[in-house]
Design brief:
alpha+beta, 4-stranded antiparallel beta sheet, single chain, 6-stranded mixed beta sheet, binds alpha-D-galactopyranose, 11 helices
């Protein structure tokens, strides 16, 4: 079977005369620490072996030529005319725009890209699109940005044209991920450490609900606003900088009456999730997967009931997982409103788990779920180009 990397390369060679450089930019999973990256919390993501392949070469004619194989769409734009557009175009153009904002002289390039991250699955194909192009441009322009600076550039890019006020988790995992390891990232300071992903006979399985509710970015930004509103009230009353400084839920309770119910619930979730992630990070090196798994279920509960970013389909998948004694933890993953659940499943029970969950899901929603056994991978990188 011809690899996706080879297909991208071939397509580039059919379309342009120059010889490209090839890059791979991964998607990510997140074990725990959901919707807290933009709340100065902690997250535990890892880069995975699914992602976006990019073939890129300079053309020096002050034009950008993109071909998205997944959308089967071309985009040609003069560097001088870069502006906000729509869909995938916003993600690539916004990355180029960030290099322009830094004062780099973009002389034009040709680019073909394609990915194997299922769309809307919550594995952050957007960060993979941004990261691959940013990495390529950093090399092409000799911009000298390190990986953390590139992650921050990609985050700014996502805020700018696509107007999703995301946190740093996805872009950080995309650049800094390492095979067989998970990150523990402090999203306030960018301090991070790596843990070996040794799951003692268990594996991570993603179940794709295949639902992707509309208005996701709008709802995402609304959650962020609710948190900002709540934090402003708390900062006024308590001597704190961020949610992590509140270590007792009672401190929040005192100010409940001054907040709307939705704002209060978001604050409660964030405070609890920050504490949960710290606890979970301590369980992992102790090989205490059982306790780790319980915290994942608690996260789901919070995301569903308090933060309100789950949906019927995801709740159903997590409930099913809970009933299976070979699953020690499950929850929705990523931004929410659809996408995947992440499950920690006993290795020999995986085929049965997938079969049962798929069958019941099909019966309930008439949707064929997809399952992926996750393999972690290194962050965005150059690949060898085959002749
Ligand atoms: C999306 C965002 C991330 C993060 C997650 C939720 O993936 O891009 O920054 O907020 O949602 O944890």
């Amino acid at each position: 079977m011809i690899s996706l990397a080879a297909t991208v390369l071939q397509r580039f060679r059919e379309s342009f005369t120059s010889e490209p450089t090839l890059y791979f930019s991964p998607g990510r999973i997140n074990l725990i620490g959901e919707h807290v990256d933009y709340n100065d919390g902690f997250v535990m993501p890892a880069a995975i072996d699914k992602g976006i392949y990019y073939a890129v070469a300079a053309n020096n004619n002050k034009e950008l030529h993109f071909y998205s194989m997944d959308f089967d769409e071309w985009l040609t734009v003069a560097v001088a005319d870069i502006k906000k557009m729509n869909n995938w175009k916003n993600y690539v153009l916004s990355v180029v725009n960030e290099f322009l904002l830094l004062g780099h002289d973009v002389k034009g390039f040709d680019c073909v890209f394609a990915g194997d991250i299922p769309r809307g699955s919550g594995m952050s194909s957007s960060a993979a699109v941004e990261g691959g192009l940013a990495f390529a441009l950093n090399e092409m322009l000799d911009a000298g940005l390190n990986r953390v600076q590139l992650a921050l550039l990609c985050q700014r890019a996502e805020h700018n044209f696509p107007h999703v006020n995301c946190g740093i988790m996805d872009q950080f995992a995309n650049m800094m991920g390492r095979q067989d390891e998970v990150l523990l990232l402090d999203c306030k300071t960018m301090e991070h450490q790596y843990f070996p992903l040794q799951l003692q006979g268990y594996k991570i399985v993603l179940i794709n609900s295949k639902v992707h509710h509309t208005l996701v970015s709008g709802e995402y930004n609304i959650r962020r606003q609710r948190c900002e509103e709540g934090l402003a009230i708390l900062k006024n009353q308590l001597n704190i900088q961020s949610f992590r400084d509140i270590t007792r839920v009672e401190d929040l309770m005192q100010y409940k009456s001054g907040m709307t119910e939705k704002v209060f619930n978001c604050c409660l979730y964030v405070i609890e999730e920050i504490a949960r992630t710290k606890k979970a990070a301590a369980f992992l090196p102790q090989d205490n997967l059982i306790e780790f798994g319980k915290l994942m279920y608690a996260t789901h509960e919070g995301l569903s009931k308090l933060y309100e970013v789950s949906c019927t389909e995801l709740d159903f998948l997590v409930e099913l997982a809970k009933k299976d004694s070979h699953v020690i933890g499950a929850r929705m993953m990523g931004g929410g409103f659809g996408g995947c659940t992440i499950n920690i499943v006993k290795e020999e029970a995986i085929p049965r788990f997938i079969e049962t969950i798929s069958k019941e899901y099909l019966q309930q929603f008439d949707i064929v779920a997809e399952a992926y056994v996750v393999a972690t991978a290194d962050g965005t990188r150059k690949l060898p180009v085959t002749p």
